[in-house]
């Protein structure tokens, strides 16, 4: 028998809420009578994501309607970590949280309460409203710091003025693309069709990476370097450009500050030294520098991995400076591209109302959760942890210490999750 097709459906426009720069445009068909989503798919009319969703999101309705979703509050009844829970009502849950927090606030103040969240969902409601307004008003400790791209954000702001990059479609104008520590076939799927078209139009694609990635297999050239030596390679390439008169010094003099100091620093990295540090052959480094300085426009597209090494921020600064030295800034299809996040603007205070609230009593770095739960902060100690939009035991460094902290009998932990 053919399935019954509801007569009244609407199609709701949306965007993928996962922590992914592609932000795919989505469509959801909803049965108006039951309110149930019937079909979830990519919006074919979006100019960049073009109706293609990755494997994480294609079965999204299976996640939404999964039978093991947690749809009501649970209270632990056995020892911590024992996995025994009882179902309670929302009134009971909210009442218990409220009374426990009032007692903590009366004894130690609201700073003893620590909300802990990250980018499980990047929607404004969950990430910005839920992560700020209530906690600001409560006066809880404020989570600060970054697990992902904090160093790159600061580095690009200091170098090019913001977390800004080229329009991904501009690669169609590029004649040379350096994919630096970047594996778009795995991590930026919507950039790949544009990259392939650029290749078909004659652009040369060079992958610089410690690993021969999937993207490297389809590149025109693969330059393998040792992990953490990207800065040395960039400085050596700049040095070649300065020494051979290929650097765009007129542009640098007119549009930048500090370039002469950068030239001096680059001189400390002659190609032989860089070859030894990076493992890339000296002649490859020289050829790459010449090619980048003489092929216009050329794009340096950078992955996030470099910003997670020691000196990650300074490495990103060098990779952002490299196309400037090569005279690639301001050219369509040229320049540096790590992220386009900075192009999205909204009035943050109208969402967070942070300006209406007193300053947070203290800031706690999210990366130090394990230490902070086990004695690194004591005035007051963290007595309650409210976790949402993240799973710190799986995603934050020093997970053993985090578990040790979570097992503290005196820690009142609330987790708001889907499963
Ligand atoms: S590629 Fe996947 S995770 Fe990224 S925005 Fe699209 S559907 Fe979401």
Primary descriptors:
419 residues, alpha/beta, Rossmann fold, Dimethylsulfoxide Reductase, domain 2, 3 domains, five-stranded parallel sheet, three-stranded antiparallel sheet, 15 strands, globular, binds iron/sulfur cluster
Structural summary, described in words:
The protein has 419 residues and is an alpha/beta fold. The chain folds into three domains: 9-52, no CATH class; 74-147 and 348-416, Rossmann fold; 150-338, Dimethylsulfoxide Reductase, domain 2 (3-Layer(aba) Sandwich), CATH 3.40.228.10. 37% of the residues lie in helices and 17% in strands. The protein has a five-stranded parallel sheet with strand order 10-9-8-11-12. It has a three-stranded antiparallel sheet with strand order 1-2-3, with no helix packed on it. A hairpin with an 8-residue loop joins strand 4 and strand 5. Helix 9 (230-243) packs across helix 13, helix 12 crosses helix 13 (282-294) and helix 16 (369-376) packs across helix 18 (399-406). It is globular. The two termini are 34 Å apart. Iron/sulfur cluster (SF4) is lined by residues 16, 18, 20, 22-24, 53-54, 56-57, 189.
Topology readout:
Elements: E1 9-15, E2 25-31, E3 37-42, H1 60-64, E4 74-76, E5 85-87, H2 90-108, E6 113-117, H3 124-129, H4 133-138, E7 142-144, H5 150-160, E8 176-180, H6 184-187, H7 192-200, E9 204-209, H8 214-217, E10 221-224, H9 230-243, H10 249-255, H11 259-266, H12 271-278, H13 282-294, E11 298-302, H14 312-325, E12 335-337, H15 348-352, E13 363-365, H16 369-376, E14 384-388, H17 392-395, H18 399-406, E15 412-416
Parallel strand pairs: 6-14, 7-13, 8-9, 8-11, 9-10, 11-12, 14-15
Antiparallel strand pairs: 1-2, 2-3, 4-5
The structure holds iron/sulfur cluster.
GO molecular function: iron-sulfur cluster binding; metal ion binding; oxidoreductase activity
Keywords: Iron, Iron-sulfur, Metal-binding
Organism: uncultured Nocardioidaceae bacterium
């Amino acid at each position: 028998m053919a399935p019954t097709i509801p007569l009244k459906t609407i199609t709701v426009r949306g965007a993928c809420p996962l922590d992914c720069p592609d932000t795919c445009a989505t469509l959801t068909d909803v049965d108006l009578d039951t309110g149930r989503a019937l079909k979830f798919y990519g919006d074919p009319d979006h100019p960049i994501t073009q109706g293609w969703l990755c494997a994480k999101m294609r079965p999204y309705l299976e996640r939404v309607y999964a039978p093991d979703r947690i749809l009501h509050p649970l209270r632990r009844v056995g020892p911590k970590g024992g996995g025994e829970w009882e179902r309670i009502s929302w009134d009971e849950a909210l009442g218990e949280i409220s009374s426990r927090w009032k007692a903590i606030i009366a004894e130690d103040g609201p700073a003893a309460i620590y909300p802990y969240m990250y980018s499980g969902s990047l929607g404004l409601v969950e990430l910005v409203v839920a992560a700020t307004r209530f906690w600001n008003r409560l006066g809880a400790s404020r989570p600060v710091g970054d697990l992902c791209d904090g160093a790159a954000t600061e580095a690009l702001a200091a170098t090019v003025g913001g977390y800004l990059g080229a329009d991904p479609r501009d690669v169609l104008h590029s004649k040379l693309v350096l994919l630096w520590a970047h594996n778009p076939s795995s991590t930026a799927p919507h950039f790949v069709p544009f990259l392939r078209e650029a290749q078909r139009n004659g652009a040369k694609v060079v992958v610089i990476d410690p690993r021969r990635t999937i993207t490297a297999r389809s590149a025109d050239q693969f330059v393998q370097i040792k992990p953490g030596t990207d800065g040395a390679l960039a400085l050596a390439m700049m040095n070649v450009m300065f020494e051979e008169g290929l650097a765009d010094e007129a542009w640098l003099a007119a549009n930048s500050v500090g370039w002469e100091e950068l030239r001096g620093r680059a001189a400390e990295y002659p190609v032989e030294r860089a070859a030894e540090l990076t493992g890339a052959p000296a002649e490859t480094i020289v050829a790459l520098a010449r090619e980048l300085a003489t092929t216009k426009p050329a794009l340096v597209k950078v992955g996030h991995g470099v910003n997670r090494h020691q000196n990650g921020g300074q490495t990103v600064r060098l990779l952002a400076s490299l196309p400037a030295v090569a005279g690639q800034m301001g050219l369509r299809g040229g320049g540096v591209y790590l992220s386009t996040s900075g192009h999205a603007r909204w009035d943050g205070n109208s969402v967070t109302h942070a300006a209406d609230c007193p300053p947070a009593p203290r800031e706690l770095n999210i990366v130090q959760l394990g230490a902070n739960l086990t004695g690194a902060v004591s005035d007051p100690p963290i007595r309650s942890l409210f976790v949402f939009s993240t799973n710190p035991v799986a995603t934050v460094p020093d997970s053993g210490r985090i578990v040790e902290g979570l097992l503290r009998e005196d820690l009142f932990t609330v987790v708001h999750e889907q499963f």
